[in-house]
């Protein structure tokens, strides 16, 4: 299974840290945030990764190179302007192929990755969900008996980690578009599974949460 890391965002909530550095390269526990992802992907047995880049893309490419330093192959999907999650994935599909792939938001940290076998039968996506953090108390979706839906309780938050079947994006024209409406449509058709992950997970969306992650990783060593 291949993987894709979403790294094309502008990092506005991280300013001023991202004024001159793209968010994926912000250091935490002695290494860029995106390197934590790469190392975890290698440990999971993944050897080929697609990274979409836009804001200060050249810095990311220069820092990571072809991936050989980390024991994998990196392909870059360049976006002159960010295409949102859905558009970014669609542009990268020629590199990802026609098989399900692991999708990871570049601005989260987690010590868990789901296995390919969790995407079953005719499902279009498998989502990792977490308990609602303080900054997102209402959650995103409901999870019942392994199925994800837009309605119901208890509510959980999408962790930014999932397995996606390329068919989820079938028929979408090129350009910028969000992934969430496609996921919700698939949920309505009962084609999205999920799981509740209760281990370490951080949405590294602000300087304060980056500092909290630094503290977490430093004390866990």
Automatic annotation (TrEMBL):
<protein>
    <submittedName>
        <fullName>Nucleotidyltransferase family protein</fullName>
    </submittedName>
</protein>
<keyword id="KW-0548">Nucleotidyltransferase</keyword>
<dbReference type="InterPro" id="IPR054790">
    <property type="entry name" value="MurU"/>
</dbReference>
<keyword id="KW-0808">Transferase</keyword>
<dbReference type="InterPro" id="IPR050065">
    <property type="entry name" value="GlmU-like"/>
</dbReference>
<dbReference type="Pfam" id="PF00483">
    <property type="entry name" value="NTP_transferase"/>
</dbReference>
<feature type="domain" description="Nucleotidyl transferase">
    <location>
        <begin position="2"/>
        <end position="129"/>
    </location>
</feature>
<dbReference type="GO" id="GO:0016779">
    <property type="term" value="F:nucleotidyltransferase activity"/>
</dbReference>
<dbReference type="InterPro" id="IPR029044">
    <property type="entry name" value="Nucleotide-diphossugar_trans"/>
</dbReference>
<dbReference type="InterPro" id="IPR005835">
    <property type="entry name" value="NTP_transferase_dom"/>
</dbReference>
């Amino acid at each position: 299974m291949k993987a894709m890391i979403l790294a094309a965002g502008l990092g506005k909530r991280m300013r001023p840290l991202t004024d001159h550095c793209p968010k994926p390269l912000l250091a935490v526990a002695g290494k860029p945030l995106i390197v934590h992802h790469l190392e975890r992907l290698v440990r999971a047995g993944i050897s080929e990764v697609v990274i979409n880049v836009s804001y200060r893309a050249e810095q990311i490419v220069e820092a990571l190179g072809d991936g050989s330093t980390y024991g994998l192959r990196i392909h870059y999907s360049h976006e002159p302007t960010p295409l949102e999650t859905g558009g970014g994935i669609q542009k990268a599909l020629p590199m990802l192929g026609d098989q399900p792939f692991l999708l990871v938001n570049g601005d989260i940290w987690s010590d868990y990755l789901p296995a390919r076998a969790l995407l079953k039968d005719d499902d279009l996506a498998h989502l990792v969900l977490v308990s609602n953090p303080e900054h997102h108390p209402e959650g995103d979706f409901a999870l019942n008996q392994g199925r994800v839906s837009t309605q119901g309780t208890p509510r959980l938050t999408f962790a930014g980690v999932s397995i996606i079947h390329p068919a989820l994006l079938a028929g979408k024209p090129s350009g910028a578009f969000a992934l969430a409406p496609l996921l919700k449509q698939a949920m309505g058709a009962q084609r999205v599974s999920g799981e509740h992950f209760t281990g370490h997970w951080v949405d590294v969306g602000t300087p304060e949460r980056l500092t909290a992650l630094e503290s977490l990783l430093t004390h866990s060593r």
